[in-house]
Amino acid sequence: MSDPVRRIKAPVRLEYSVTAGKDLSRFLVAIADGRLIGKRCPSCRKVYVPPRGVCPTCGVALGEDVPVSDTGTLTSFCIVNVPYEGQVMKLPYVYGSVLLDGADLPLSHLIQGIEAADVRMGLRVRAEWLPPEERRPTLESIRCFLPTGEEDAPFDTYKEHL
Amino acid sequence: MDRDHSGLPATARGEAAVLSTPYVLEYTYRRSVGPVIGRFFAGLREGKIQGALTTSGKVVVPPTEYDPETGEPIVDLVEVGGSGVVTTWCWVAEPRPRHPLDRPFGFALVKLDGADTALLHAVDAVREEHMKTKMRVKARFRAERTGAITDLVCFDPEISE
């Protein structure tokens, strides 16, 4: 008998079909168009980005669509130093929460154009969009967020959104 | 419902569109198989099926790593026949994408000649009326074998002379 087998590949694979729902679909369609939209809660006035059907705090259906800016403030971030299988980014890279101007919920995205060691809370950043013909209804239509060069936002302006 | 798998649609399709997309979650695990299953797989690579020899002399196929009666580690594997008898079965009329065969087949417990337990596998019987309890079936091996359970493609009904 030949040598025993020592190891086998035993992948686990699950194939889903994901449906975005009405509100998230409108958000994604707007992204393919180079726009960012949220929805305002008629009760607490908070603007949710991406939009959702119901305000999780007040429990009421959200109201009108609200355009939000593609510029915002980095509220928190993490520096990724650990390699893992399937990684496409060069280490170290920064993933952060961006509070878009006009929004009350930060969006997570890649922060580039700045050394990882220089990234800080309050950094002002702007979406770096793919060229219009490459945009699709996905957050990947925004390649990353880049520093705007503005002065950092004072802590008080985003302390409610951490 | 208005669905779209292209990922394109967007503005042209109007505001009412609800987007949907395929999403695959996959973990690329590798695992060590241990000394017993490792030898079982090496046997499959050579086109042989082996069972675990227990203290009381029974042959368990596929081999377990421990004697089901005493809990003692299994030391010896013995080769069993490449043919056997269907002890029970069910018919799969509409195979799923990852099933062993891409046409209707039977999932059966096959007690191989020389074995005391039955192995679960697919029987390529083509039609349900060809499946019968106690029917004889024969293992079909892949031509290029790698030492994996998939070296055993399925079982074919034995043609009676």
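Strands of chain A lie at 7-9, 12-19, 36-40, 47-48, 65-68, 71-80, 93-100, 107-111, 124-129, 142-147.
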